[in-house]
């Protein structure tokens, strides 16, 4: 059973349950309400064929979108090479905690969306990520209990406008040199979906193959076991800073294979596909 937002024809998106190849409406419920129960209801009625439904982002209006930065060692290494910088020391050895930035919810788009490159960008990059969907309020939770607050998992592409990340008119030492909003928070920068898989169907989020293709060519091919900080460690740390609420998303970082590591970027017409073991496949285009 998967949790979806779907529509038929010109109807408005509504919450539903995907069972096999059929979609069933969850009448009177929103996705956030279903998440807060940490359990999905049984499918009722005849439903409709999946092929007759249009799937939207499984969270149309998510809460806060927390995004882990530099959380795969191989990705850290490739970015250092791309910038001709020395390999950073392991953050665990330095006693550091996970590091995050936040995307606005207006950046979320659904499966098969067409995302326009932000104005002025020629270096739009891909980043396949496992996303944990929070199901109930979490505050100061220990690592060993952190996954109990996850309702399910989905996939995201943390699209990044690499050439908008810095203000060239300001020197690197200036505190306003970096622009994370233009870099990561532009409209459409978080394709999400195609559905939410219940946490009960994902026994270990740290043992999932994760891959991304551009126009059929494999670019990222890794496993969530290569994270520096696990999903549970990330949730625990975030909950020590602020209360996590149902519908919040935790994007857990991306592995090596991004475009910046090979000076290769997305162009209009490109097709991006992401697959995470057991979670389906997310597809979108660059408009």
Write a structural description.
The chain is mainly β. It folds into 2 domains: 2-56; 65-286, Fumarylacetoacetate hydrolase, domain 2 (Alpha-Beta Complex), CATH 3.90.850. The protein contains 4 helices and 19 strands. It has helices at 31-36, 73-82, 180-184, 231-241, and strands at 2-7, 14-19, 22-25, 48-49, 54-56, 65-68, 100-103, 108-109, 114-115, 124-125, 128-134, 150-157, 160-161, 190-198, 209-214, 217-223, 249-251, 271-276, 280-286. The protein has a 7-stranded mixed sheet with strand order 7-6-17-11-12-14-8. Strands 4-3-2-1-5 form a 5-stranded antiparallel sheet, with no helix packed on it. The longest helix is centred in the C-terminal third of the chain and has 11 residues, at 231-241. It is globular, with a radius of gyration of 19 Å.
Topology, pairings included?
Blueprint lengths: L1 E6 L6 E6 L2 E4 L5 H6 L11 E2 L4 E3 L8 E4 L4 H10 L17 E4 L4 E2 L4 E2 L8 E2 L2 E7 L15 E8 L2 E2 L18 H5 L5 E9 L10 E6 L2 E7 L7 H11 L7 E3 L19 E6 L3 E7 L1
Parallel strand pairs: 6-17, 8-14, 9-19
Antiparallel strand pairs: 1-2, 1-5, 2-3, 3-4, 6-7, 10-13, 11-12, 11-17, 12-14, 15-16, 15-18, 18-19
What would you give as the CATH superfamily of the largest domain?
Fumarylacetoacetase-like, C-terminal domain
Chain-averaged pLDDT: 93
Gyration radius, to the nearest Å?
19 Å
Number of helices: 4
The main sheet comes to: 7 strands, mixed
Structural class of the secondary elements? mainly beta
CATH structural class of the largest domain: Alpha Beta
The CATH topology of the largest domain: Fumarylacetoacetate hydrolase, domain 2
Annotated CATH architecture of the largest domain: Alpha-Beta Complex
Give the fraction of residues assigned to helices.
Answer: 10-25%
Sum up the overall morphology in one term. globular
- Overall structural domain count: 2
Q: Distance between the terminal alpha carbons, to the nearest Å?
A: 32 Å
Taken as a percent bin, the fraction of beta residues is 25-35%
Following the backbone from N to C, one meets helices and strands in this order, namely: EEEHEEEHEEEEEEEHEEEHEEE
Biggest sheet: strand arrangement: 7-6-17-11-12-14-8
Number of E-type strands: 19
Poorly predicted runs? none
